[in-house]
Amino acid sequence: MKKIRVAIFGTGNIGTDLLVKIFRSKYLECNLFSGRSFLSLGLKKFRAEKLKNKRKYRNLILSDKGVNALVKNSNNFDLIFDCTSAKLHKKNFKLFRKLKKKIINLTPTDDGYMCIPVLNLEECNKSIELNMVSCGAQSSVPVAFTMSKIFKKRVQYIETTSTISSKSAGPATRLNLDEYIYSTQRAINYFARVNKCKAILNLNPAFPHINMETTTYAKIKGKKVSKSELNRFKKLLKSIISKLRKYVRGHKIIVEPTLIDDVLVVKTKTIGAGDYLPSYAGNLDIINCAAVAAGEYYAKKK
Length: 302
Ligand SMILES: NC(=O)c1ccc[n+]([C@@H]2O[C@H](COP(=O)([O-])OP(=O)(O)OC[C@H]3O[C@@H](n4cnc5c(N)ncnc54)[C@H](OP(=O)(O)O)[C@@H]3O)[C@@H](O)[C@H]2O)c1
Known about the structure:
Strand order of the largest sheet: 3-2-1-4-5-7-6
CATH superfamily of the largest domain: NAD(P)-binding Rossmann-like Domain
Radius of gyration: 19 Å
Bound molecules: NADP nicotinamide-adenine-dinucleotide phosphate
Distance between the termini: 11 Å
CATH class of the largest domain: Alpha Beta
Structural class: alpha/beta
């Protein structure tokens, strides 16, 4: 099968980890990796890789010319992965559309069709722009969705807290914290159909670096949750997480669904593949593997 040619815009933590993953893909080929400075660690890394293995990277253009490189090389790709910042995405998305490219947006903006591959890959593939929301949304939304499937309108409130290592959050992630909260909450509202929710992100500077973990809880109103309802919830969640693990292998439940009075709590952990940063940075993997799954699905259907 012929691979779909892609461009990655943004050469920071997310962009660089994504590039390593795309080089393993049977369906995607990256032809352009564009940032704004050759001092960027991602561009430095791939300049060195290219010198070591010219054959493997022969089609990969490395550029520090930002969005101008996308315009100049637009005949070389059909899909753009935007790994910059929400502000920059807002500035550029009209241009991406003018270039008539499929867009997979990894910045937390409100543009595009929200995509959580385990829940809606098929329907969002129809949209020209897919929005991967945030790392916290990729881990909490499947749990929140399952809560709403079992307890329906009895779900009164959902709160999710993700903790990631400070080292894995680049400057753009830090600039985007308000957008992260807004877009993660928007995704929970949409997928779980719950009006009241709260998303929290904790950048933990501890050393040794900590793994990505997400705790999601729901307040269930009305009649007391029965044992059989809890068991149905556990069963459905297990099957959704096992589907999610097909594209994010290091994701798992680490605290089984627990009921404390009317509060149902689930805790997950994501261990990364160690493609760019070491395995503690599962936050890069959970969104990048989701983005690769969305790109590969598009390639297979094209
Ligand atoms: N890190 C995470 O855990 C995570 C998870 C999910 C989603 N995200 C989202 O992914 C995006 C990137 O996050 P990150 O942690 O990878 O941040 P980052 O390391 O700061 O990466 C952002 C990249 O964009 C580049 N950039 C900034 N302005 C540019 C311009 N005008 N033209 C071209 N390139 C430009 C930066 O260049 P320089 O290298 O020269 O600064 C940097 O390489 C953010 O929107 C974030 O919210 C992050």
